[in-house]
Amino acid sequence: MDDSRLNQIAERLRVAERERKAIDPPAAQTGMSAADAYRIQMINVARRVASGRRIVGRKVGLTSIAMQKMFGVNEPDFGHLFDDMMLASGDECRVSALMLPRIEPEIAFVLSRELRGPGITREDVLAATEYVTPALEIIDTRLRDWKITLADTIADNASSARVVLGGEKSKPSKCDLASVAMKLEKNGAVVEEGVGSAVLGHPAQPVAWLANKLAEFGQTLAAGSVVIPGALCRAVEVAAGDSITARYDHLGTVSVRFV
Description:
- Strands 1, 2, 3, 5, 6, 7, 10 and 11 form an eight-stranded mixed sheet that branches. This protein has a five-stranded mixed sheet with strand order 4-13-12-8-9, with no helix packed on it.
- The chain starts with a helix and ends with a strand.
- It contains seven helices and 13 strands.
- Helix content is about 25%, strand content about 30%.
- The protein has a single domain (about 5-259), classed as Fumarylacetoacetate hydrolase, domain 2, CATH 3.90.850.
- The radius of gyration is 17 Å and the shape is globular.
- The chain is α+β, with helices and mostly antiparallel strands and about 260 residues long.
């Protein structure tokens, strides 16, 4: 796909997010590939940085076998996290700033040193992690009715919108992260359960994949980066008035209120 078409799609996505007006998925109209979609994502990343927003980390998506089968792929995807996307546990999230929000519980990694691929392993990730903490990713789409393909979600910054980080910080050696159990509550009732192994067998594995994937773009995971490696269960729809809490064995809790 030529640069002119890539920039046109990037601009449509940027305007859709700014004006909160959904657009039709571009993949069906243009036949864009995953490679094209990453180029589109990077165009809007550059625009956000130029406008003063700061990259604070990355997200990894499609880390469950079920989701990969649904999209017909055999690897995850990634998006960028910016400073204005970050919330602290207990904060409010304004639904009016979003379009079709859903929420996913994850185990966030915060790095103490740079991870530079290729060749990064799970063990490298654990050694480079300052701490892990409970997290909630609020995903959203700028595309109509969540009718998306792999290329659509990649172009749309992997459907990311907000990240809520818990206040409890744990060394990754505190427990077996693959065995950490989680309960997700919506308005006080448990609606989903999950376990750390739901994300490629171990939450550190998607972080290793990400470091190696970023090497293809000449990028690294910098010290201090926040990485959310994928959901421990299905995404849950949310609306104004909802209160969400995720409780993790050994790691603590994280919560957010939608207003």
